[in-house]
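ZP: hey, is the nickel (II) ion complex queued? I don't see it on the tracker
AM: it wasn't, my bad. submitting now with these inputs:
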Amino acid sequence: MAIINRIADFHPDLTAWRHDIHAHPETAFDEHRTAEFVAKRLAEFGVEVHRGLAGTGVVGTLKGNGSGARAIALRADMDALHIHEKNGFDHISQNQGKMHACGHDGHTTMLLGAARYLAETRNFAGTVHFIFQPAEENEGGGRVMVEEGLFEKFPVESVFGMHNWPGLAAGQFAVRSGPMMACSDSFEIIVTGKGAHGAMPHLGIDPIVVAAQIVTGLQTIVSRNAHPLESAVVTVTQFHAGDTWNVIPQEVVLRGTARAFRPEIQDLIESRMQAIADSICAAYGATANVRYMRRYPPVVNSEAETEVAASVLNAVVGEKNVRRDLLPSMGGEDFAFLLQKKPGTYIWIGNGENREFLHHPNYDFNDDILPLGASYWARLVETVLAKAA
Ligand code: NI
């Protein structure tokens, strides 16, 4: 691995920072200690610090020693999850019920490592903005930063993101142009029937029987309506009804998640869901109330920025360690909101094979890859914002 030597020197510091952040996880929009930690480090490096976007967001701004008006942004996420950590190591979460189970502690640390190196060397022309965002999980902190004027306050030509990926070997990266992560939509279907005595079903309209058929019917959206070569997921994750043994309830609440890579497929899922729920309910005299909520758009990488990232990674880890063959993920990621405004690319850094997957209570970010990710960020800045020869 061609880790930048100076960044390798920081490895003990990076590990200590990562453990500190891991031990003090904070969830959406509550990343006060983490934001303070980040802002303090950036100021120590001599990076200009801006705070307050989306509440706990931090943006560091650094100019290179070459002349140029160009600017790019690198983004890391800072938030943790509501998970009870099951690890036994010294840096285990000290905040009961909260855990860095998605590696955002590592993402924050790698970007800090790059900022430290770039502030020392400034071997680039133009400006780099280091974006540390809150609330990637569930709450769309990236969207809030964009809405509060992220790119008006910090104009850039492109934006770059990185997430660790368990199962992908440490020392490898995954890069792809086009869709990388799916949209994340939520839906709720309330089926209203007519409550009755469990022994006298003919006197009621049983919403459980109706809702069960809706769950089955929803399976045909992906298998029968979407083009076979399109990717989509419709998953019912909640089926709530009834309180006791001998009562047919009045109502069933279904909830779930839908994923796709293109807005046309989101439209298809939404319209078919409505039609299936309405028609099945009509057949039995029940009614359906369908709510379809578009949460995160898909992450779609632009071709030019993806190729630049790949060329940088080829230089950092060698071409054979830059995987161009991995399938995109149906998981969601709020970096999508930044990519809706600016071209850019979102890559995966291998967190190691045989490691727990993201959001598992035994997950941990792999400290070995901290200098590798920081080296990618640093070389990316030096490449995209290269000084004139
Ligand atoms: Ni994550």
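AM: back. The CA atoms of residues 215 and 236 lie 7 Å apart.
ZP: great, adding it to the tracker
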